[in-house]
Design a protein that fits this description.
- The structure is a single chain.
- The chain is α/β, with parallel strands linked by helices and about 260 residues long.
- The protein is built from 12 helices and 8 strands.
- It is globular, with a radius of gyration of 17 Å.
- The termini are far apart.
- The relative contact order is 0.16.
């Protein structure tokens, strides 16, 4: 489905009936990453997947896509569908967008799951990496994407899940250069949203990959101690929907049904 938005198009899908679940993909991903989650939950829930700005079949709307701008695009879809309350699951950059949405519209949330994501802002080193990557992307895009994408997986996972890895990489390579740079620039600008997450009045879950090189899991676990933010730690890296595919459905079910161990 396509929604006209600011002289551009937002692509989204809706499957199933029941309480809504909003799925927001990460950087260099599309709604295709959620295929297994849709299969697990569409019989009991309404699953809404949205291609974020500059990704998949959704257009770019500028040269910087802030997380707030992406959240506004998501909100436009939800308002079009008349969604008042939902569980929101965001992978990586999708988690940043979900937090920006929570900052704008906290009453929307029945639950928020940050999957291989964080509420933290980029530090100086990470911002510099993004700036350098954007410059490199203009010179040799395919090589940059291939090298950076490899860092999202543990070496063992790349071999074990070779087919899924290759499929995800091919989708990543389809991200337009403008979409890549606009997202990198937008992620550099995002603030720390720990207080937003802590103060959100709903079920909250962070899914952590023990070998995730992009997330400081030890620091994250320390900071959420003594809050009502739950976490679960998986054995592998940043791509839990591939690397921990068998563990993910149970934990997401526990999240959306507000179940406790």
């Amino acid at each position: 489905m396509i929604l006209d938005y600011k002289n551009s198009s937002i692509h989204y899908t809706v499957e199933g009936k029941g309480d809504p679940i909003i799925l927001l993909h990460g950087f260099l991903e599309t709604i295709d990453m959620w295929q297994n989650v849709i299969a697990d939950f569409s019989e009991t829930h309404q699953i809404i997947c949205i291609d974020l700005l500059g990704h998949g079949k959704t257009d770019c709307i500028g040269y910087v896509h802030t997380m707030e701008a992406m959240a506004d695009a998501v909100l436009a879809v939800l308002e079009h569908l008349e969604i008042k309350n939902a569980h929101v699951i965001g992978h990586s950059m999708g988690g940043y967008v979900a937090l920006a949405l929570a900052d704008k519209k906290p009453d929307l949330f029945k639950g928020l799951c940050l999957m291989n994501s964080t509420y933290k802002a980029d530090d100086k080193a990470r911002k510099l990496i993004r700036t350098r990557a954007s410059k490199m992307a203009q010179e040799n895009y395919d090589v940059l994407i291939t090298l950076s994408f490899a860092n999202l997986f543990t070496p063992e996972s790349k071999d074990t899940y070779n087919s899924a890895y290759d499929n995800a990489l091919q989708l990543a390579l389809q991200t337009p250069l403008q979409g890549y740079i606009a997202a990198q620039e937008g992620m550099k600008l995002r603030p720390n949203r720990f207080e937003v997450l802590k103060n959100l009045k709903c079920q909250k879950l962070i899914i952590i990959g023990k070998k995730d090189s992009l997330i400081d899991s030890c620091q994250l676990i320390k900071e959420i101690k003594n809050t009502d933010i739950e976490f679960v730690e998986f054995s592998e890296g940043h791509m839990s929907h591939i690397e921990n595919e068998s563990d993910l459905p149970y934990n997401l079910l526990r999240f959306v049904e507000n179940l406790h161990p």
